[in-house]
Amino acid sequence: MAKAAVLLLLAIVPLLSRLLPFPSLALNQDFCVADLPRGDTPGGYPCKPQSAITADDFYYRGLAATGPTINPFNIGLSSAFVTRFPGVNGLGVSAARVDFAPGGVVPLHSHPGGSELLFVVEGTMAAGFITSLTNKVFAKTLHKGDLMVFPQGLLHFQYNLGNDTAVALSSYSSANPGLMILDFALFANDLPSDVVSKVTVVDELEVRKLKALFGGSG
Hints:
Layout: H1 2-19, E1 69-70, E2 75-80, E3 94-100, E4 105-110, E5 116-122, E6 125-130, E7 137-142, E8 147-150, E9 156-160, E10 166-172, E11 180-181, H2 182-187, H3 193-200, H4 204-214
Antiparallel strand pairs: 1-2, 2-3, 3-10, 4-9, 4-11, 5-8, 5-10, 6-7, 6-9
Helix pairs in contact: 3-4
Family: Belongs to the germin family.
Function: May play a role in plant defense. Probably has no oxalate oxidase activity even if the active site is conserved.
Organism: Panicum hallii var. hallii
């Protein structure tokens, strides 16, 4: 009886992996290149047909140059998440590059889906994160060649300490770690300003100024 059950399981698993082409279920595949037009799912993007996969799916030049500027933070950001780099789908990895102009800052933000490992390529910067239970801050001054890790989901930041451009590369423990920037979450929304003032204990006039800065309404 036990032998029959094992044989049945061995027969079913390959069938399921063909019928359910998602990263966590494609048990007999080496990889699952994202089929982006089919949309995301809780298990990741569906797999692109093997016959349609080329070397270009595993290659990306998006971090070779400074990305678009994010105002008012004076930084350039380019990412290699699954939505831009389909080959990382299901592999639990992705990357990003940040270029900090003098005075540039990555404000308090979090990645709900993954931890971040930051590597300083050029310049000097301050970086740190805040714990969720005690609000304890862990911060360091980072120089060229230094690494710092930010645990998944925790608010963290970086800013340029020098007079020249600083550059950092980040890797993530997820193909799509997500990004929530605290300033945008608070002031780029359409909640009425008096409500934001109540829930943040920030003066309503200041809230209105910040909503104007970040493009919010209400």
